[in-house]
Amino acid sequence: MNQPATQTLSTVDDMRQTLRRISHLKGRQPDAQSLQEVRALVSAFDRRDLLIEHLHVLNDTYRGLYERHLVALAHDMKLPMAEVFEVATFYHHFEVLPNDAKPAALTVRVCDGLSCEMGGAKQLLAKLPSLLGGDVRVVSAPCVGRCEQAPVAVVHHNAVPHATPDKVAAAVSAQAIQPVLPDYVDMAAYVADGGYALAASLASAADLGNAKADAVLQAMEASGLRGLGGAGFPAGRKWRIVREQAAPRVMAVNIDEGEPGTFKDRTYLERDPHRFLEGMLVAAQVVGIDAIYIYLRDEYHGCRELLQQALAALQANPPCALPHIELRRGAGAYVCGEESAMIESIEGKRGEPRMRPPYIAQVGLFGKPTLEHNFETLYWVRDIMQKGPQWFTSFGANGRVGLRSFSVSGRVKQPGVKLAPAGITVQALIDDYCGGMLDGHTLYAYLPGGASGGILPARLNNVPLDFDTLQEHGCFIGSAAVVVLSQHDTARDAALNAMQFFAHESCGQCTPCRVGTAKAVQLMQAPKWDNATLEDLNQVMVDASICGLGQAAPNPVRCVQTYFPHEVA
Question: Which of 67, 36, 68, 73 has the alpha carbon at shortest distance from 52?
Fold first, then answer.
């Protein structure tokens, strides 16, 4: 005889409740001590998006992530244990430890990026373990964003520029835990120089459709300012697109400056953080932003302290009504510089890029329309508005328009961030801004856009450096990271360094990138390259990778095959 429907549903509900109770008891359970230790450090367990922030607190306190703490954290956040573990193991700056492990007293990271490798990073890595002893962990690290100071070591949170074994040993002996903050323009000095007047003037607007907001949009569009994180999308047009979306809208600011050879955002942030913050507030007012999330790469410890102080000063004396602002800490993952991977990370997840569509301007952070911007793009907003868009467009060379901040490193006398006209050539950049090549060095090749931007020979030293000028040569400018090689270097070594970086930094989500970069590294280490197989890999990565990491990884390889075939024959 059939049971009544209501009785059947009741039986099913009872079974589901029983299964939930049983499943809750499966797996490792937290012990009382671990729960107490986690709760002493962490709060806001109900916010899934703060998982990475919580992991940082535990990692900083215990010099690693003990499994028992991860179990306790998963319990209190009501997350599956696998979910917490998969996030903890995704990021390079987290180390998951067995419960009986004893972490190193201190960790020293030696940058093995191209500029640092040219400066002697391999030799430094070889000498430090025996010099520092077994209680200090010495590891190689991808580019730490200080290419002009190569080679660079990072002792805990403190960078050691132009590192030598003795300098690193002295830093280890000092046991300096807190990062050293650079001198910068504080809020009092910034306001005294007219800072935040623009943001304050917009605050008097009755609504977002006011003439002042429209004037800002028109000026941004007239300036031709493009996104300076690498993609180059027109900033004013991006503001209009997001402004047209339904509220609530949010902003995600990208300071995850991980492209090898790039350090411009750090340089400007260390000097004048409030100029960036004012640009951020102007964009928020014009677009109608309710909340802002600033994503700062973990390697920039001093900048994080600096930015925390600047935000506290701004919130204590705001020039206008402030949106909700949160500063988020990256955890060592180059792929999080990709806008959708950054959004995943802000949400407390693995930094894996999203498929498109939808685009983040429509469905982005927490499912809301999102204005994503690079630090430097916002840094120029105040100058463009106060000096007029014609000020920005008055610069340029070789038919190009605007200013570019070039991060220059390698074999030049004066490396650093060089503010120069868009369209300048690498030869003029070296001669007029960098003091020329190092003594005994002549230009052999250069990377115009960091590791992913390709490699050009010295005979192409007069190509204008700007958006849309390098593609015909198999390159792009990206974030304008220029690495200069001399006759003492080889393009094949530079390409191998770049591919090793990409293989290390691939998120692993898609097979073409995960397998392709690793296989390319193997093939590129052979004395003679198998160009046919490499080109097969190149094409698959370009065609089938989800994001720009895999799509751009073949650029240095193809440039070596095109311009330096004698090196790999």
Answer: 73
